[in-house]
Amino acid sequence: MTTIPFSRYLPFLHWATNYRREDLTGDIMAGVIVAIMLVPQGMAYALLAGLPPQVGLYASIVPLLIYGLLGTSRALAVGPTALVSLLVASGISGLTTQGSGEYITLTLTLALMIGLIQLAMGVLRVGFLVNFLSHPVLSGFTSAAALVIAASQLKHVMGISMPRSENVFETLAYALEHVSETNLAALTLALGSIIVLWLFKSRVGRWLKAREVPPHLITPITKGGPLVVVAVGTLLVSAFSLNISIVGTVPAGLPPLTIPSLDKLSALLPVALTISLLGFTESVSVAKALASKRRDALDANQELIALGAANIGAAFTGAYPVTGGFSRSVVNFSAGANTGLASILTAGLIALTVTFLMPLFYSLPQAVLAAIILVAVTNLFDLKTLRHTWRYSKVDALSLLVTFAAVLVLGIENGILVGIISALVLYLWRTSRPHIAIVGRVGETEHFRNVLRHEVQTCPQVLTVRVDESLYFANAQFLETYLLNAVAERPQVKHLVLVCSAVNFIDSSALESLERLMDELRSAGVTLHLSEVKGPVMDRLRAIGFIDHLGAQHVYLSTHQAMLELAC
To answer: Which of 128, 170, 541, 547 is most buried, taking the most CB atoms under 10 A from its CB?
Structure first.
């Protein structure tokens, strides 16, 4: 009997007991750099979620510690993200007022529900459910979400009060109507911060490389942009007493122990399921991409367990839902993270920040935090995928565009639901009309190809047809009608050979259709033959008695063999 190592369920046992001294430098560097990024980002994302800024920092302590112990990715940086923050605000704002005690309590409940859902998915090993979120749907959703997030920050950029709305068009219309009320100080700070962040993101690294700055210094400098704009913005407000919205008093101290409420579970379930699936998809996609660069193994189900435990930890420490962030994970990887210790060190530095440094953020302008969010969500807008998908498959591009439009018009949760349904409907439509080819022999070879694409030899009395799709309820009738019409158009045909090389599955509806087809062909004096039937499909056909009904002598290993037997 094989013994499963305990470290499979507690990955930290593996790296902790085999820790190498040469890994420590990379872990420390990554932990420090990610912490520098996460302090301003955590506060900004918390405000995006409709929560006090300290909640974003709380979400960057215990959840990171738990993931560092249980996660299998060496590079994934867990914490608050723009997408999850938007979903939290979308899911809870309809139930209570932002900023109220009930709002915070429901956020804790949501984190607990997400944690339990992800934990259960990991234990039951059903991570495959995220496959229902196709890449075009995800791309359409994230691109639309980027616009929704950007629109939600206009009130801070312009320095005016705006009613909350997930409808981008309503938000833009309101902003245009009240543009004369814009606070110029807030607008100037926001635009200046955006320019500085963009320079750090796209220009500073090149400038440093040109001056031969050591590579190990370039990463922390280029990723320090958010901290620079926070420091400068705070100093400007303090020095000139600018009349703009600021963060204000942020409670110092470690996260409090909290108890989630069990109220409104049914109302929170849709957004909990959405965040569970989207959060895991976002996390595992970036984790896999980074793991492949180091040829690391990644256990998707253990990742679900780790993320679930991290969210449960968030629920009991005054935080809100977390997931793996793309940009921070890339930075974590580039900075040299080698083990979960990097995540643990980040958590420790955030804990020190909330304990000793919170008074420094009193005069932090919300316009600066809005700028950080706006620059961060530019990575979510995915025009490249739309161009690529449009060239390759108009159907997939349609599901992307439907999702994009639905999110903008119907809102976040309804939009992603419409996207998933549209992708499934388009898949059913596409597979309901499978590609079917009449084939013939290529020269003197044993190869058979489409008569419309190649010069081939055919026999008048034998019709050889290849179907390029598994057979199921949606396409069974289409195939049956096609074959009967093809035979009717060729009175000389005595044999129909159905090439099943692309058929991986035949459901019960398709089986009934094949049985009916066989009987109708017999009554017309045509014999049905099968060739290149795959093993699992053949096993099912044998078990149900279809092969006995058809006749085993009418089933061939290859199309070539069928043609020889039929003297063609």
So the answer is: 541
Indicate if the pLDDT at residue 4 is higher than 90: no
Fold designation for 436-565: Transcription Regulator spoIIAA (3.30.750)
For strand 527-531 and strand 555-556, is the pairing parallel, antiparallel, or unpaired?
A: parallel
What is d(CA 322, CA 280) in angstroms, rounded to the nearest whole number?
10
Q: Are 383 and 143 in contact (CB under 8 A)?
A: yes
Distance CA 73, CA 71 (A): 6
Reading the block at residue 51, the tokens are 């929560």
Question: Distance (Å, rounded) from C-alpha 448 to C-alpha 167?
Answer: 55
Q: pLDDT of 232-248, one tens digit each?
A: 999 999 999 999 999 99
> What are residue 272's DSSP bridge partners?
none
The Cα–Cα gap between 244 and 183 comes to 7
Strand 462-467 to 448-450 pairing: unpaired
For 40-43, the CB contacts below 8 A with 24+ separation are: 40/226, 40/227, 40/229, 40/230, 40/369, 40/372, 41/79, 41/80, 41/226, 41/328, 41/372, 41/376, 42/79, 42/80, 42/350, 43/247, 43/250, 43/361, 43/364, 43/369
The share of the chain scoring above pLDDT 90, in percent, equals 69
Question: Do 29 and 339 meet the contact criterion of CB atoms below 8 Å apart?
Answer: no
- Asked whether the predicted pLDDT for residue 2 surpasses 50, the reply is no
Task: Assign 369 a pLDDT band (cuts: 50, 70, 90).
Answer: very high
Per the document, the length of the chain is 568
Cβ neighbour number for residue 99 with a 10 Å cutoff = 10
- Specify whether the CB–CB gap between 365 and 233 falls below 8 A: yes
Q: Residue 530 pairs with which residues in a beta bridge?
A: 498, 555
Distance CA 372, CA 190 (A): 9
- Domain assignments of the chain as residue spans, ordered by start: 24-152+164-242+254-422, 436-565
d(CA 372, CA 231): 13
Provide the token pair at 554.
Answer: 């009418």
- Nearest CA among 271, 233, 194, 230 for reference residue 57: 230
Q: What is the pLDDT of residue 287?
A: 86
To the question of pTM greater than 0.85 for the whole model, the response is no
Query: Which residues have CB under 8 Å from 346's CB, separation 6+?
Result: 30, 31, 32, 34, 35, 38, 60, 64, 77
- H-run or E-run covering 229: helix 225-240
In three-state secondary structure terms, 263 is: coil
Nearest to 341 by CA among 12, 58, 9, 18: 12
pLDDT in tens, 428-477: 998 999 999 999 999 989 999 999 999 999 999 999 999 999 999 999 99
